[in-house]
Design a protein that fits this description.
single chain; mainly alpha; 3-stranded antiparallel beta sheet; 10 helices; 3 strands; 7% strand; ThrE_Dicarb/AminoAcid_Exp; Threonine/serine exporter-like N-terminal domain-containing protein; ThrE-like_N
Length: 267
């Protein structure tokens, strides 16, 4: 294998890992994918270290006339949840390992996966997020009024977060705005219908922001022995939960100061 192809193979493997890590994959899965891709092209030595914010990979081929270890570092600055892309990269890696796919074709396929568009906003945010929040409201004991109230609040929160994510707004501030919006909408809707329970609507609306995947991956990485990644993901989950609480708490406190925490119907 030439030095150029060796570098190109490692770059391709790192690109696959980057797509997975940016879209919610576990640390062990990213490491395993990069190692499998490299070893399928006769790399004798492959060492990969992945954290939620970066990928470090070194590789070399035994017996190569240019016996030099190639090392690359990839910084991950943004993360989200798109398990469809993770599944697509998994399928690609199996296809690449089981065939003699050219590197140019492999890179082209990865670029196609990376450019996959998510669901339209009216489906993802307004419908998906709204229904998620609405059914969580029922799960927490809400009535039909809380169901529709949580649907409206969660839809608006999901739409807001979707727009903020496209502008690369800081995640901490995004979640504060999301929590504040959920609380504001719950209070506003309770003025329209006195049968709406503010607490249940807020709970249902903020469930679309709860870092479930981050918590799950933190536990999974810690069990697998990836303590740095586990602690990092756990810290990320705590920060997200704290920012949501700050947003909700600010609006509720403001409501208490201005209106005593009472509905207009009772004033």
């Amino acid at each position: 294998m030439s030095s150029f192809n060796r570098k190109k193979t490692l770059i391709m493997a790192l690109y696959a890992g980057e797509i997975m890590l940016k879209n919610g994959a576990e640390t062990y899965r990213v490491e395993d994918t990069i190692i499998r891709l490299c070893k399928s092209r006769n790399f004798h030595y492959v060492e990969v270290y992945v954290t939620p914010t970066g990928i470090f990979a070194s590789a070399d081929t035994k017996g190569d006339s240019q016996d030099e270890i190639v090392t690359y570092i990839k910084r991950i600055k943004s993360r989200g949840i798109n398990l469809n892309k993770v599944a697509e990269v998994n399928s690609f890696s199996r296809q690449f390992v089981e065939s003699d796919m050219p590197l140019d074709e492999a890179l082209s396929k990865l670029k196609e996966i990376d450019s996959l568009k998510p669901y339209p906003k009216h489906v993802d945010a307004l419908l998906g997020g709204g229904l998620s929040g609405a059914f969580f409201a029922l799960l927490f004991g809400g009535n039909i009024h809380a169901f529709f109230g949580a649907f409206i609040a969660a839809s608006i929160v999901s739409y807001l977060l979707s727009n903020l994510a496209q502008t690369e707004f800081p995640p901490f501030l995004s979640n504060i705005f999301g929590g504040a919006t959920a609380a504001f909408m719950a209070i506003a809707l309770s003025y329209i219908s006195p049968l709406i329970n503010v607490d249940i609507v807020i709970t249902g609306a903020i469930m679309v922001m709860v870092p479930g995947v981050a918590i799950t991956n933190a536990v999974r990485d810690s069990i697998a022995g990836d303590l740095v990644s586990g602690l990092a993901r756990a810290a990320e989950a705590v920060i997200i939960a704290t920012s949501i609480a700050v947003g909700v708490g600010f609006v509720l406190k403001l409501w208490q100061i201005l209106l005593g925490g009472h509905l207009l119907w009772n004033i």
